[in-house]
Design brief:
The protein is mostly beta strands. It contains four helices and 30 strands. Bound molecules: calcium ion. Calcium ion (CA) binds next to strand 21. The site of calcium ion has 7 residues, from strand 21.
Length: 469
């Protein structure tokens, strides 16, 4: 048997088995679903997209191009209108069809074949679509395939094909028109809606029916637009306040990355927000400094918390209890000290890591007045010790500290004044430590004569939390 016959024979065997098994499984109450058409796609979606290289152009497909893909999004919720999004292993495409209730014929998971000859490949600000070129108001326009012609170009195949969103990071999503993720069903993990959006609904519920942009962001990183039509049946649903994963169709509008939701079930924001403590966590340390006494004006009190150490190694400056914007915090600065070296320590009370696992440290910091003429070298270090005893000089010989600063996100600082808000550190793992530990915030600054040697940043530290599970 030559190779071709062998393959043909084995394919026939498999087909025979498939027919046998399906005839066994499918009883009279289960009519057979639609099957794939006897059409051979000859072009990948990536290859089709490569035929459109000039943004705004209308490329009429002149040859017998046939693509095939699985429907990943349709008009079921009303957020998508007269469009289908189909995807193969190379890319994704938006089909413009001038008809309503497309989801009844083209459910998510259905394979479709598109005979593209005669259709127009164009883009709207970088998001490509396949439709027909028409003239609207005397100008060329990319329009939907007329409803009476849809069956000529779009042929439905098998249903219930698996649809798995492609897990990506925001940096993988580009605004290049050929980007393989444009029009595709993608997933971004660990996002949440920005705080100002959590009191809103997904879209406009007024009579104006204006499409709305909302914004999601990771705990640290850039935000991404979630764009929702006021005609979506979830336009009036409240934006969720949690954190988690999101599935959406990725589109671009010029240089803007836009996500289009299929439905609210694509937004799996069920975890506590960035900076919030998980509900199942065991709190091992929690200090917000709200019990500190802060006079209306200087002199301010040094931070004083039972079990904590607040000591000046060099320069005589202590962490002070201060308040601004409705919260109290610990503040340290070399500014105005006239000292060549200012080293100060704020050490927490003992943290017992014996009864938990996967411990995490979080805190918030704010850095002001970096000073234009001075050094930008970091003036704050975050340290952990397993052999500090909780009393005495933390800098004493024999006391060892592990520098974990690089694991934390610190306030970027401002040359003059302060950033608009505190910066959350993110999760700093303490899982590598065991027994009883202490966490230290070590300030290392200077304010000598002149400005060249200035290291005068003012650091404000708040909401120091350690938890485990
Ligand atoms: Ca506070």
């Amino acid at each position: 048997m030559n190779k071709f016959l062998k393959i043909t024979f084995s394919v026939m065997m498999v087909m025979g088995l498939a027919i046998l098994s399906s005839s066994c499984k499918k009883d009279f109450d289960q009519p057979p679903g639609p099957t794939d058409a006897n059409i051979a796609p000859n072009t990948t979606i990536a290859a089709l997209k490569a035929m459109h290289t000039s943004s705004g152009a209308y490329d009429i497909i002149a040859t017998d191009v046939i693509i095939s893909g699985i429907v990943v999004a349709n008009d079921k919720s009303g957020n998508i209108y007269k469009q289908l999004f189909i995807q193969d292993s190379t890319g994704a495409m938006q089909l413009l069809l001038d008809a309503n209730s497309l989801y009844t014929s083209y459910p998510v998971g259905r394979r479709v074949y598109v005979k593209a000859k005669g259709l127009s490949l164009s883009d709207f600000n970088g998001t490509m679509s396949l439709g027909v070129k028409a003239t609207v108001g005397g100008l060329p326009s990319q329009e939907g395939i007329p409803s009476n012609l849809i069956n000529k170009y779009v042929i439905g195949g098998s249903i219930n094909n698996p649809v798995v969103p492609i897990l990506v990071t925001e940096s993988q999503l580009t605004t290049n028109m050929q980007d393989r993720y444009i029009n595709a069903l993608i997933q971004l993990n660990d996002y949440e809606f920005v705080g100002t959006d959590t009191s809103k609904t997904y879209s406009d519920t007024s009579a104006y029916k204006a499409t709305q942009n909302r914004f999601i962001k990771p705990c640290s990183g850039s935000q991404v637009t979630v764009r929702t039509s006021a005609y979506a049946n979830f336009a009036g649903v409240s934006i969720p306040n949690g954190h988690g994963n999101i599935v959406a169709i990725y589109t671009v509008f010029g240089s803007t990355k836009q996500l289009i939701l299929r439905d609210t079930s694509d937004v799996m924001f069920n975890d506590p927000r960035c900076g919030a403590i998980p509900s199942n966590a065991v709190i091992l340390l929690n200090q917000d400094f709200e019990s500190q006494v802060v006079p209306a004006s200087a002199p301010y009190n040094p931070i004083s918390v039972t079990g904590w150490t607040n000591l000046a190694e060099v320069g005589g400056k202590l962490y002070a209890a201060r308040t601004f914007g409705g919260t109290k915090y610990a503040e340290i600065t070399a500014f105005g000290s006239a000292q060549n070296v200012v080293i100060s320590w704020l050490v927490t009370s003992a943290v017992n890591l014996n009864n938990t696992t996967s411990e995490v440290l979080r805190f918030a910091s704010n850095q002001g007045f970096i000073g234009a003429g001075g050094s930008t070298a970091s003036t704050l270090k975050v340290l952990v010790s397993s052999n500090y005893t909780g009393t005495g000089n933390p800098w004493a010989a024999g006391v060892t500290w592990t520098d974990i600063t690089s694991q934390a996100t610190l306030s970027p600082g401002a040359a003059s004044g302060y950033p608009s808000s505190f910066t959350n550190s993110g999760n700093v793992s303490l899982a590598g430590f065991s027994g009883t530990v202490y966490v230290a915030f070590k300030y290392d600054g200077a304010d000598p004569a002149g400005t060249a040697g200035d290291r005068t940043s003012t650091w404000q530290i708040d909401n120091i939390v350690v938890y485990g599970f």
